[in-house]
C-alpha cells in the first residue's frame, strides 16, 4: 500500500502520545517490510511516504531546513526546466540531485500557484513550519486516490482507506451502503464518498489548506479552463497531437534507463511504441499477459520478435489459477481499498513479476478516450448507466428511476426509500460539477477526465503502486492541453449517431501517427483482425469495414479463457462470510455487477475483522 500518510493537529492537540497509532498507520501502508519509507514528525504534524518495492533510494520526503518546509509526495512530478534554471540562479545552496528539492523553493516564490506550474500524477502534503500552515493537494486529474477524514481535533489522510481506519482516531466505523450502490450501478463510486462513512476522496485539482485550526478546500483547475470551441484544422490537429505525444513520451522515457512497457494486440500501445522505436528500444522491457493461444500473447510475440525487443509473456493458465489466483485476488481487492474486483487479479499478478526490472510502467491507458471518435458505447470503463446519466443531463429523477429498475434494487439493503433518496441527492451533487458546460458532449468530456479517469484508471494504478508507478502519455497534462485544441476534442463523442466519415477519423489518426514515426509497426495484425496498414489500400479498407461494421468481430478484452474464477473466488473466500453482510445471497442471477459485489463483500468482511 505504498503512498503517503499523515495527521495534522487542528486544535493544538499533541501527537507525541500517539506513537503506537502512528507506527500502526505506517505499517499498514507497507505491503512488504523491505519497502523504503521516510517519515517526519513533530508535536503537531506527522507525515510519511512509502515507496514502491522497485525504488532503491528515499526521495519522496523532502525536509528543507533552510526554508523550514517539509514535503511528502506520492507519484511523480515534472518541474519546468526554465523554473529549475531560475531557482539555480537565485539559490546557490540548492541541491540539484533530486528534482523534488526544488518544490519548497517554488512554493516560497509562488505560494499556492505552484500547483499551476508543476505537472505529473501526484498527491502531496506540504508543511510550512514557520507559519504552521499545511497544504494537501493532488494533480489536475487527481489520478492517484487520496483519502481523508477529519473531526474537531485532527485531519488524517492516506493513500489507502486502511491507513485511516488503522489510526484509531475514528470514533465510529460504519459502512456506506449508498456508496456501494453507486459502485454497483456505475462500476465505481462517482462521488467522493467512500465505502466508509465520513471518509472521503480528495476531488481532482483540489487544494486543502489547513491554517490556525481551520480547513479551506478549493479547486484550482477544471478541464473547461483549457477547452474552447475554436479548433485546429484536420492537418493541424494531427501535427499538434503528433508533437505533443512525442514530447510526453520522451519526457517519461527520461525517468529511467529501464521501463516496463505494456504491449498488447491493440492500437493504443502500438502508437506509443512507434515513438519509442528505435531510439529507446534498449530501455524497454516488454510484456503482455493472457491465455497461451490468445491474440494478446500471439501479436506481441510476433512484434517483439520481428523488432528484436526484450519481451516476456505471462501465461494465464490453470496452473496460475491453482497457485496464484486466490492470493492475488485478495491482494487486488485490499490494495485498491475495495475498488477493484477479482477479475483484475491477473494485472497485479503480472505486475509483481515486473517490478524487479523497473520502477515505472509505460502503457497506453486512456488512449481510446482521446484518439477514438464516435458515439459513446457502454462497456467496462464507462458503463451504460453512466452514459444514460449524462444523456439525461444528470437528471436525478431519471437516474433514480433507472436505479430502481435495475437488479441492484432487488437486494434489500439497497432498495429502501432512504437509500434511493440519498442516491438521487448524490446525482444532483454530481450535476452541479458540470453546470459550467452548456453542451452534453462537453459535460461528457469533463466527466471522463475529472471523474472516470481517476475513479477507474487511477484506482487501478493505485492497486499496484507498491510495485511501480504507472505512466501514460495520454494522461499527461501538457498533451491533453494540446489535444483540447484539436478537432478530436472539439466535437468529442456527440450524442447522436456519427457518420461513417467521422468513425474513420480515428482509424486515420492512428494510421498517420504510426506511419509518421515507425512505419514497420503498421503491418502487424491486431486483436480486431486487421492491421493499421490495411487502411492504406482499398482492399484493406473493405476488410476493415467488413470486420468492424458487418461481421462486428468479437475479440477478448482480458484474453483469459481458463476455469471459472467466479466459483473459485466464491467457494474459497466467501463461503464463511457472516450472513449479515452476505449481499451475495440476494444477487439476481447473471447480474452484470456480480464480480463487484462479491469482491466488495470480501473487502467489507476483511475490514470488519480487522477494525470492528
Automatic annotation (TrEMBL):
Top class in the EC scheme = ligase
Q: Which Pfam families match?
A: GATase_7 (PF13537)
Q: Catalyses which reaction? A: L-aspartate + L-glutamine + ATP + H2O = L-asparagine + L-glutamate + AMP + diphosphate + H(+)
Domain (Glutamine amidotransferase type-2): residue spans on this chain: 2-213
Transferase among keywords: no
Q: Where are the transmembrane segments?
A: none
Name of the molecule in the record: asparagine synthase (glutamine-hydrolyzing)
**One MF annotation (Gene Ontology) recorded for this entry:** asparagine synthase (glutamine-hydrolyzing) activity
Q: Does the keyword Acyltransferase apply?
A: no
Protein origin, superkingdom? Bacteria
- Pathway in which this enzyme or protein is active: Amino-acid biosynthesis; L-asparagine biosynthesis; L-asparagine from L-aspartate (L-Gln route): step 1/1
Q: Which keywords, in A-to-Z order, does the entry hold?
A: Ligase
Q: What is its EC number?
A: 6.3.5.4
Amino acid at each position: 500500500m505504498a503512498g503517503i500518510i499523515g495527521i495534522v493537529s487542528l486544535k493544538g492537540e499533541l501527537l507525541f502520545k500517539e506513537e503506537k497509532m502512528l507506527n500502526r498507520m505506517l505499517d499498514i501502508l507497507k505491503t512488504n517490510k523491505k519497502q523504503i519509507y521516510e517519515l517526519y514528525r513533530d508535536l503537531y504534524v506527522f507525515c510519511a511516504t512509502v515507496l514502491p518495492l522497485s525504488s532503491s533510494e528515499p526521495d519522496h520526503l523532502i525536509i528543507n531546513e533552510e526554508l523550514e518546509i517539509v514535503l511528502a509526495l506520492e507519484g511523480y512530478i515534472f518541474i519546468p526546466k526554465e523554473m529549475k534554471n531560475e531557482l539555480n540562479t537565485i539559490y546557490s545552496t540548492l541541491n540539484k540531485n533530486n528534482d523534488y528539492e526544488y518544490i519548497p523553493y517554488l512554493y516560497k516564490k509562488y505560494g499556492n500557484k505552484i500547483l499551476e506550474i508543476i505537472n505529473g500524477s501526484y498527491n502531496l502534503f506540504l508543511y510550512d513550519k514557520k507559519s504552521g500552515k499545511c497544504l494537501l493537494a493532488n494533480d489536475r486529474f487527481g489520478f492517484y486516490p487520496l483519502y481523508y477524514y477529519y473531526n474537531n481535533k485532527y485531519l488524517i489522510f492516506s493513500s489507502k482507506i486502511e491507513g485511516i481506519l488503522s489510526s484509531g482516531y475514528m470514533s465510529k466505523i460504519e459502512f456506506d451502503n449508498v456508496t456501494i450502490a453507486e459502485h454497483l450501478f456505475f462500476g465505481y463510486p462517482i462521488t467522493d464518498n467512500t465505502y466508509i462513512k465520513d471518509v472521503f476522496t480528495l476531488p481532482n485539482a483540489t487544494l486543502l489548506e489547513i491554517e490556525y485550526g481551520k480547513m479551506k478546500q478549493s479547486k484550482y483547475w477544471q478541464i473547461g479552463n483549457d477547452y474552447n470551441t475554436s479548433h485546429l484544422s484536420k492537418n493541424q490537429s494531427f501535427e499538434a497531437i503528433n508533437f505533443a505525444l512525442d514530447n510526453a513520451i520522451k519526457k517519461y522515457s527520461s525517468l529511467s534507463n529501464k521501463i516496463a512497457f505494456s504491449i498488447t494486440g491493440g492500437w493504443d500501445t502500438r502508437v506509443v511504441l512507434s515513438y519509442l522505436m528505435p531510439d529507446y528500444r534498449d530501455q524497454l522491457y516488454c510484456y503482455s499477459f493472457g491465455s497461451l493461444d490468445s491474440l494478446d500473447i500471439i501479436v506481441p510475440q510476433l512484434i517483439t520478435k520481428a523488432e528484436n525487443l526484450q519481451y516476456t509473456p505471462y501465461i494465464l493458465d490453470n496452473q496460475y489459477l491453482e497457485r496464484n489466483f486466490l492470493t492475488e485476488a485478495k491482494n487486488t481487492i485490499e490494495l485498491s481499498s475495495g475498488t477493484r474486483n477479482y477479475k483484475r487479479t491477473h494485472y497485479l499478478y503480472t505486475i509483481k513479476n515486473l517490478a524487479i526490472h523497473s520502477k515505472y510502467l509505460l502503457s497506453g491507458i486512456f488512449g481510446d478516450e482521446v484518439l477514438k471518435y464516435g458515439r459513446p458505447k457502454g462497456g467496462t470503463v464507462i458503463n451504460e448507466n453512466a452514459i444514460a446519466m449524462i444523456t439525461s443531463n444528470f437528471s436525478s429523477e431519471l437516474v433514480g428511476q433507472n436505479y430502481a429498475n435495475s437488479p441492484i434494487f432487488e437486494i434489500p439493503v439497497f432498495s429502501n426509500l432512504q437509500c434511493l433518496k440519498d442516491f438521487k441527492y448524490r446525482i444532483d451533487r454530481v450535476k452541479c460539477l458540470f453546470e459550467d458546460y452548456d453542451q452534453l458532449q462537453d459535460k461528457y468530456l469533463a466527466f471522463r477526465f475529472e471523474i472516470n479517469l481517476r475513479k477507474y484508471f487511477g484506482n487501478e494504478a493505485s492497486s499496484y503502486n507498491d510495485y511501480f508507478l504507472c505512466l501514460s502519455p495520454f494522461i499527461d497534462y501538457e498533451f491533453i492541453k494540446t489535444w483540447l485544441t484539436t478537432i478530436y476534442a472539439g466535437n468529442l463523442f456527440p450524442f447522436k449517431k456519427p457518420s461513417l466519415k467521422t468513425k474513420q477519423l480515428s482509424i486515420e489518426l492512428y494510421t498517420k501517427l504510426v506511419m509518421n514515426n515507425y512505419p514497420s509497426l503498421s503491418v502487424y495484425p491486431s486483436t480486431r483482425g486487421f492491421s493499421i496498414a490495411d487502411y492504406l489500400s482499398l482492399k484493406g479498407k473493405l476488410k476493415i469495414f467488413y470486420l468492424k461494421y458487418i461481421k462486428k468481430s468479437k475479440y477478448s478484452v482480458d484474453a483469459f479463457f481458463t476455469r471459472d474464477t467466479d466459483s473459485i473466488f466464491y467457494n474459497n473466500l466467501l463461503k464463511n462470510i457472516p450472513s449479515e453482510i452476505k449481499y451475495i445471497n440476494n444477487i439476481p442471477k447473471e447480474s452484470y455487477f456480480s464480480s463487484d459485489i462479491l469482491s466488495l463483500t470480501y473487502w467489507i468482511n476483511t475490514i470488519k475483522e480487522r477494525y470492528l
